[in-house]
Every structure is written in C-alpha cells, then in structure tokens.
Amino acid sequence: xxxxxxxxxxxxxLRQRAELGEHEIVLEGLTRNQALALAxxxxxxxxxxxxxxxxxxxxxxxxxxRVPAMAGAPVGLPVLPASYGELREAALVCTRCRxxxxxxxxxxxxxxxxxxxxxVGEAPxxxxxxxGLPFVGAAGKLLDLLLQTVGLARxxxxxxxxxLKCRPPGNRNPLPDEIETCSPFLEKQIELIxxxxxxxVGSFSGQLLTGRQGVALGQLxxxxxxxxxxxxxxxxxxxxxxxxxxWTRAFWDDLQTLRSIxxxx
Length: 265
Ligand code: SF4
Hints:
- The chain is an alpha/beta fold.
- The chain has helices at residues 3-20, 23-26, 32-44, 84-92, 126-131, 137-148, 154-157, 176-193, 203-210, 217-220, 238-243, 248-264; strands spanning 110-111, 117-121, 158-162, 197-201, 225-227, 230-235.
- α1 runs antiparallel to α6 (137-148).
- Bound molecules: iron/sulfur cluster (SF4).
- Iron/sulfur cluster is lined by residues 91, 94-97, 99-100, 106, 164-166, 178, 181-182.
C-alpha cells in the first residue's frame, strides 16, 4: 500500500467514524494509526502458513435460531437462470414467498461481481428496503469501515448480499420457510461470483452456509469453515456491533483471519 493510499484510507476512516458517532466502537483500545499499522502488518504476514483460529469470545447464553441447511433446502423455485443478469432479474420480480407482499424493493446485492470476498448478511432492514441496497445506514457504514481496515473496499473487491432478498416486516427474524425458498438465489450468487472467501455476518447466514442449524454464533466463530470449498468465516452482524461495541474487537480479529486466508490464497 502506498503512502497516499494509506492517507486516503485514514481520511475515509475518520469521516466514517464521525458519521457513525461511534468513536469508541471502531477503534476500541486502539488509535487510528495503531489500527492501520496492525492492518498493514496483517497484510504483510499474509502468506505465512496456516491461519491461527480466532478466539471465540461471543456470549453463549442466548439461544441460537434454527436455520435450514442450504444444501438440503427444498428449493420451491424453478431452475434458476445460469447468467448473473438473468438471476438478478428473476429475483427482482420474485413472488415466491410472503415477503413479496410487504417489500418496497428487492435487495439483491451491492459491490462488484468480480469480488474477492462475498459478505452474506441476514435480510434487508428498513433502509435497505427503501433503497434497494444491502447494508446501508449506520451498520453498513461500520461494515465498510471495518472492511477497509483490512484493505477490502465494497466498490473494489467486495460483493454484499443477504440470505433473504426482501425485508421481513418489522425487522423480525427470517422464518425457516422463507430461508428455504430464498436461499437458492444466494447459492447461485455465490456460485456465479466464485469468491476467494466468504464472510457470514450474523447467526442466520452463519448457520445456513455452514449447514450447522441451531448452533450459536459463538461456536461458529473462531474457526475457518468451508462452503463448497470456499473458505468461510463467521462473525457478528455489524448491527450487533452497534448494540454491543465491545464485540468490535472480536469482529476485527475475525477480519484478520479472513485477510490472512485471502492473502495466502
Ligand atoms: S424473500 Fe426471496 S423468495 Fe421471498 S419473495 Fe423475496 S426474493 Fe422471492
């Protein structure tokens, strides 16, 4: 990374921090320069051998939602188009589940189709439903900021989508039949993007992509999974970081693991 790139990145970090108003969240225990230095060090140590598991620091008390396994999902959809453009068009007019009746926009994806990393969240929220884009608003900005610290920019090397393409009313949790009906879109997206790595943020995407229904996120974190041969890291949803700022460091540790895997690929 050049000095000018570092400066631009630092300026962006500061702007995003100010917009978020969550100074202590982003750089918990670290100054901006320390965070950037650590990110740079992680990139330099990339090619270095096997990845050390990140510490599992999540609370384990909360019951984990049960999510259908993707591989065995009763599709409920016709054969999906083979091309990306046709797949997107099919999703944008999809009425396969009840959520089509309450959505404003289908939220298919954001980022670049030749991405190195695919980030998979849960479902659109109010801002996403209104704009048609995933991960906008404070949680999206925080995600962008944290990805930037490991050199991954949404507009350059990241593709972002959700398990569900339509917003559950009132931001309720996705229901199992909704996940089963919609997940073939996600499966095809990942197949067509063919990323180097996957990052599942939150319990629903973590359980779906690992096929480990009912397993708490704290147990999915701290190890490198495989989804059809693609390395997969599970971590917190950025919205959870806004509610629980002390989890931000653990999220960042997970990003370090992710970055090391990608640099070693
Ligand atoms: S959530 Fe998925 S399956 Fe349901 S209507 Fe939207 S795109 Fe179709």
